[in-house]
Amino acid sequence: MSEHGHTHDPKEIKAIVNRLAKATGHLDSVKRMVEDGKDCAEVLIQLAAVKAAINNTGKLILKQHISHCIVDAVETGDEKAIADLNKAIDQFL
Predict the structure, then answer these.
(1) Where are the domains of the chain?
(2) Within 13 Å, how many C-alpha atoms sit on residue 60's CB side?
(3) 26 class by beta-carbon count within 10 Å (0-12 exposed, 13-18 middle, 19+ buried)
(4) Each residue's pLDDT tens digit in the chain (93 positions)?
(5) What is the pTM for the complete model shown?
(6) Cα separation, 72 vs 53, whole angstroms
(7) What CATH class has 10-92?
(8) Which residues, in sequence order, are CB contacts of 80 under 8 Å at separation 6+?
(9) Cα-atom radius of gyration of the chain, to the nearest Å?
(10) What does the alpha-carbon distance between residue 4 and residue 76 come to, in Å, rounded to a whole number?
């Protein structure tokens, strides 16, 4: 249960965890590329892929947060949750 008194779908959590695990593995591969002296352009392309994976995971978390946490916050009048979302969006973007 979250701090706002509701739960998240375990399938959604698993999907996010899987995406993060893939991004972590990809980033580890990029690290090895640098250690192995791979072409800088190749490294930059792979870093862009890691960034895209992280950003897409963030978007998924944001969508789930809005559809669960923020809907709940609006229904219960939790203005702090909405303010916290705005702060998180500013930092994420």
Answers:
(1) 10-92
(2) 17
(3) middle
(4) 445 556 788 899 999 999 999 999 999 999 999 999 999 999 999 999 999 999 999 999 999 888 888 888 888 898 999 899 999 999 988
(5) 0.78
(6) 28
(7) mainly alpha
(8) 73
(9) 17
(10) 10
